[in-house]
Amino acid sequence: MQASARISNILNGGSDGWDVFNRARDMIADGVAVTELTIGEHDIRTAAPILQEMHRAAVAGHTGYASIPGTTALRDAIAERVSTRTGVATTRDNVLITPGGQSGLYAAHFATLNPGDRALFIDPFYATYPGTLRGVSAEPVAVQARANLAFQPRAADLAAVASGARTLLINSPNNPTGVVYSRATLEGIAQVCVDHDLWLISDEVYDTQVWEGAHICPRALPGMAERTLVVGSMSKSHAMTGSRIGWVVGPAEMITHLCNLATHTTYGVPGFIQDAARFALDQGLDFEEEIAAPFRRRRAIAQAVLAGQNAVVLVPPQGAMYLMLDVRGTGLSGETFANALLDAEQIAVMPGESFGEAAAGHVRVAMTVDDGRFEQALRALCRFAETIS
Ligand code: PLP
Fold it and tell me: Measured from the CA of 203, which atom of ligand 1 is nearest?
């Protein structure tokens, strides 16, 4: 019996770009001490008080089917957070709670694209994007944000392919580049969306990890609230990756459609997880800064280490838990560099090519091991690059 073309097409017959990661995992399973700088996951676990609240809520009986769009308390908390941070009036009717940002991304595209529609996204991209778009039977159209323009996408490049498209997916702060889109970039994007009648899907799961500049939510730009779906998550902001809790914020009518989708797919998110998420949001900005602090520190460590060499070039890290290193000076592709580094130094980083053509000749370094080990690994990476430059 055959699987559907749609599901078989999710990977499009190609690799999912995680070969180095898988090889590192195999080496670790064989007992090799690999420094793992691949996956975007904190080196701390979810804070004990959040887990205690989860436990309390479960023991208190919040274990049955929960309200499908999300509990009123959590939707209100997200609506208030969004209103305060963006200035866009937002109520619970604009909020759907989802099992993580990933599921929000899928739902947002399912809700806005018909089969065969052109769906624009920016290259370099978070590795799952093309699969998500193929998964809803859309035609993914990558638009490059160029390395020589600091990976800020250009409105002219988007406009050139926007005809006949229905959606545009962006992500700032950006995984994998660590770039935060400027106001000018976002205004250009908004203009393209208005001119070409596009839905904007704005993936903002790193919005609490901004090291330089400011996060601007494009939903707050003129004419955008009615055509923007913002995908958010507590995975990165509250170190709750395994709790699978996120949201989509957008026009109330679209949230009603998304709620229908949730009724026929996820059937909502467990109530005890939602209660813990509400509790976590109540911990406020200081707590969010505490979760972001290790990455802020390691970014400074990286800037100091990389200043003392010229074998690799650091893309200015403005946000998110990653560094992008340009390794083209070594003459190697990102993929060859990452594989060779793993063999020579037992350090695992992601090849830029895993995130699209625009990141070729780069590697992405996740800042997800303790400061001492991180610094040592970066020094070893630089020495390695120097030996082959
Ligand atoms: N979007 C981006 C850009 C990501 O990097 C990730 C995870 O790494 C996600 C979405 C999905 O996050 P989650 O489903 O854990 O909320």
Answer: 1
Residue with tokens 């970066």: 378
Q: Which of 18, 126, 354, 368 to probe ligand 1 with, by most ligand atoms within 8 A of CB?
A: 126
Q: Which whole-number Å values give the CA distances from 191 to 20, 204, 260, 323, in the listed order?
A: 39, 19, 30, 30
| Beta strand pairing call for 246-249 and 199-203 | unpaired
Rounded CA-CA distance 330/258 in Å is 47
Q: How far apart are CA 30 and CA 110, in angstroms?
A: 41
In whole angstroms, give the CA distance from residue 299 to residue 325. 12
Residue with the two structure tokens 């990102």: 334
pLDDT at 253: 98
Task: Please name the residues in contact with 78: beta carbons below 8 A apart, sequence gap of 6 or more.
Answer: 70, 95, 97, 232, 247, 249, 281
pLDDT tens across 296-344, in order? 999 999 999 999 899 999 999 999 999 999 999 999 999 999 999 999 9
pTM of the predicted protein model: 0.97
Could you please state the CATH topology (level 3) that the domain comprising 62-283 is classified under. Answer: Aspartate Aminotransferase; domain 2 (3.40.640)
CA 68 to ligand 1 centroid distance, Å: 21
Q: Report the alpha-carbon distance of residue 359 to residue 333 in Å, rounded.
A: 10
| Residue 233 CA, closest ligand 1 atom number | 16
CATH for 5-45+286-388, options being 1.20.272.10, 3.90.1150.10, 3.40.50.80, 3.40.50.1820? 3.90.1150.10
Phi, psi dihedral angles at 326 (to 5 degrees): -85, 115
Residue with tokens 């893309």: 315
Give the DSSP H or E segment for 288: helix 284-307
Residue whose CA is closest, atom 16 of ligand 1? 101
**281-298 per-position pLDDT tens digit:** 999 999 999 999 999 999
